[in-house]
């Protein structure tokens, strides 16, 4: 069982930065790949980034590549999403999620989800 709690969302101007944090509880946190997803009003939830277990390889959606950085601190059971050069189209609720599946770009592959944190980027 893994419990996830996101924080760090807020209102920022276009071009600005935010860092989201996800605090995880559970003894087996290090076994999970950890993903960030987002959902804008009226749209489906979409994959943003993932950091795998073990070596911690990272992968990104094309829409955020080069602007966002995902990282994990297994000693602290934390996952982060550093978001730079934010755009109005990045506005969404951001969710942290955990999976043991290799299909880590798919929403349905994730077993555990946080409650989400709102990110609003003004133009």
Percentage of β-strand residues? over 45%
What integer is the average pLDDT?
Answer: 95
Helix content: under 10%
Order of SSEs: EEEEEEEEEEE
The shape, in one word, is globular
Structural class: mainly beta
Largest sheet, described in full?
A: 7 strands, mixed
Span between N and C termini?
Answer: 40 Å
DSSP helical segment count: 0
Query: What gyration radius follows from the Cα positions, in whole Å?
Result: 13 Å
> Which residues sit in consecutive blocks of at least 5 with pLDDT less than 50?
none
Overall strand count: 11
Describe the structure.
By secondary structure, the chain is mainly beta. The protein is built from no helices and eleven strands. It has strands spanning 3-7, 10-13, 18-25, 33-39, 46-51, 58-60, 68-73, 78-83, 92-99, 112-113, 117-122. Strands 2, 4, 5, 6, 9, 10 and 11 form a seven-stranded mixed beta sheet that branches. Strands 1-3-8-7 form a four-stranded antiparallel beta sheet, with no helix packed on it. A hairpin with a 6-residue loop joins strand 4 and strand 5 (46-51). The chain starts with a strand and ends with a strand. The mean pLDDT is 95.
